[in-house]
Amino acid sequence: MAHDHDHGHTAVKLEYQPALPIGRGKLCLWLFLSTEIMFFAGLIGTYIVLRFGAPPESWPLPHDVHLQEFIGAFNTFVLICSSVTIVLALEAARGNHAGLSKFWMVATFLLGSVFLGVKAYEYNEKFKHGIFPAKPHSLLYEKADLNYVAAVRQSLAPKSLALTEKLPELTAKRDPLLAKLDAGQALTEQDQQQFTELNRQLLPNDLQYDLVQWTELIAAKDPDQAQRRRALESLAVAIYPLRPLGKEGAEMEHHYVQMLDEEAKTVRHQMQELEKDRSLAQNELAAKKAESDALTAEIAPVQMQRDMIQKEIERLQKAETTTAATEEAPSNLVSLQPPATQPPTANPQVEKLKTELAALDAQLMPKLEAQRALLAEQQRIFEREAAFTTELKRYQGRVRLLLYTLKAAPHGLNHTFSELRLPMVIPSGNMWASTYFLLTGFHAIHVLVGLIAFVLVLFYKLDRTKAHILENVGLYWHFVDLVWIFLFPLLYLF
Amino acid sequence: MADLAPTDPRYPGHGYDPLGHGDEHGHGHGPSGVGKYVIVFLVLLGLTAVSYLVGNSQTLREKSPGVMWAAMMAVSCAKAMLVILFFMHMLWEANWKYVLTIPASMMSIFLLLMLIPDVGRRVDRYSEERWLYAAQPDSNSHAVAKAAEQHGHDKAGKSDAAGEQPAASH
After folding, report:
1. Which of the two ends of chain A, N or C, has the fewest CB atoms closer than 10 A to its terminal CB?
2. Is A233 exposed, middle or buried (0-12, 13-18, 19+ CB in 10 A)?
3. Structural domain of residue B35, as residue ranges?
4. Residues 198-227 of A with CB under 8 A from B
């Protein structure tokens, strides 16, 4: 050793360094982190371009998808705290304070668990409202089109079908209450309760007919395209309205309720027209009925006369055949001949009656014909009247839906009757759900891995010799925090 | 290996220390060890509050969303720098840190740039058919009306057709 030193004065001494001047574990962790940087940069970049590349104005607002900013902010706070505690754990370990270090590590572990717990709560909140990244559970639709209405009908079908048996009984109970309301009378409290309860029980059926079928009919029949589109959109709004928070949203809601009232008014007006048409049809039917009654009265005596003549002829012919039979009974030859072809020299009295009968028939025929035509027409008018009646019932149902169901659910049917879980229109909602669950999911997996590492570290005595382990775990954990620092504003605030 | 750690520079407890501060090196810089972390922590909290307030500012969102997004990203970058420099000790590491961080950052930036034409501008190349099933913007929104005016009747007609059932539009 001393020998070496002597020569060191003259020769240039180069220190050979075989690798980066850091420990292997730390080097590996940094290499891993640099791949992680690229991984999350790719994910976040994709999110940014998807979010800003979405069809204009279609990205959902946070509360549209049950995202609460302050929860995200709280989670950010939790992660920052955990970053500090793990740094403090490292410092304590370097200072050889094993107990203190362990304390800070436990704190870090708990904070990480809190983060995951909050995340689980948030996910559950989404799932509860039918926001899933993919189809079998997802209730998200991109736009209010026929495809969407069909999905709503399908989702209501089983519940509406299950009601079929109870339907007459329930409607019979509700109709008098409804009539009272229509007449402008106030319901007693008990009646009001019963009415609400009945409405709730009948809801799937009401929605199926007065909301979905109503909309489908307009969408299929209305010649005006704007009208068709408006009908589809108002269905989507009734189920899940997308409104901003605050004053603007409140104004929109107020406007929506007003629109419901207006539509009810228009429908009622149309009902009056329909009623007019129906009463016209009823009058017409009554007139036709009177006409046919008169005709029947005319026909009846003639018919009676005809019947009498017929009987007379029969009686005479019977008498004749019996006399003929007694006269010609001995002759077997003659009796073989049928009696009908027998007498050209028939009874003149019968002949006379027969001409009379023919005359009456000629008189009766056109009248019977007219009566048949009248009956057919009556049938037609009756059918028309029945159609008016069903149409009126349909309009009545619509008014009831507008005034007593939709007006009671201005925040949307899915909000007020959450058990329905109807498909809802959130433009770009599917893309939102995919990116949200992917990004937060990958981040949550990283948090989980961190927690596992913490548990493993906690088995050691965390003194100076274990400081390098704490440093590496800490680097990883800070990176997890770093990713969340970007995810929070991107997902919750953008 | 654990026995080697304190003495052998190749297995250092917490990074190789060319300046020879030994095990106490972490305490040699800036304010006292714990104090600087507390300061950084408070600054981080303040920045989080700033981005929360900016993100919830309705006026900013309506008048200049671009400024809002840029501000939030700037705040996020500042927070990230603080975490990297202080919590991850990058401030005190030797020059090897650039060997890892610069290539990784460049790669990630290229990655973003490569995504833009494929994903970000995909709406520009939507076919008629694709528009039929695309998300429909909220028709109540003023911005949509404005956009429709700017794009002229062609685009407006397109989005109208998009609102219809496929059978009706053909």
Report:
1. N
2. buried
3. 1-98
4. 219, 225
